[in-house]
Amino acid sequence: MIAVFALISVVGAASINQHGQPVPMELVTKIGQIFHDMDVNGDFFISKDEISLFFTGYDQDMNGIDLSEFKQSWDYKDTDSQKEHNFNQMDKNADGVLTDYDLALIFLTADTNQDGVIDFNEFDIFMRASVYNNIS
Ligand SMILES: [Ca+2]
Ligand SMILES: [Ca+2]
Ligand SMILES: [Ca+2]
Questions:
Q1: From the CA of 43, how far away is ligand 3's center (Å)?
Q2: What is the pLDDT of residues 55-97, one digit of tens each?
Q3: Distance, CA 94 to ligand 2 centroid (Å)?
């Protein structure tokens, strides 16, 4: 059923989340935008390489992405506290830096059917459950 709901949100109108409540249009648009930005080759799948590529520019001093670097680059009209929340959700080992280790875990978590790529349904579910999970 969750996949069906995610499919509805791809279409856009009248989205509902897994609790049957309306999803603010803004979050639908936001997740779509992030997916689009990560999908560098435009094949509607996110590969491991594309996630790394997406975050490469975030790491200005090449020692992992810290919160201030993340806040500077994550530009999806999120408030500072939302960005901090997103960062902490993605920093899987909670050491204050986003590294390849965290990205690998994110990829494993998001690729639920384990086919080696993240499709939009998987991405949408992951973002709602693990990154924007403070927004209903
Ligand atoms: Ca792609
Ligand atoms: Ca980390
Ligand atoms: Ca997949």
A1: 13
A2: 999 999 999 999 999 999 998 999 999 999 999 999 999 999 9
A3: 5
Tokens for 22, please give them.
């309306």
Span from the CA of 107 to the centroid of ligand 3 (angstroms): 9
Alpha-carbon dihedral sign for residues 109, 114, 118, 120: negative
pLDDT higher than threshold 80 for residue 133? yes
Ligand nearest the Cα of residue 35 is 1
Tell me, in angstroms, the distance from the centre of ligand 2 to residue 73's CA.
17
Architecture of domain 2-131: Orthogonal Bundle (1.10)
Strands 118-119 and 45-46: antiparallel
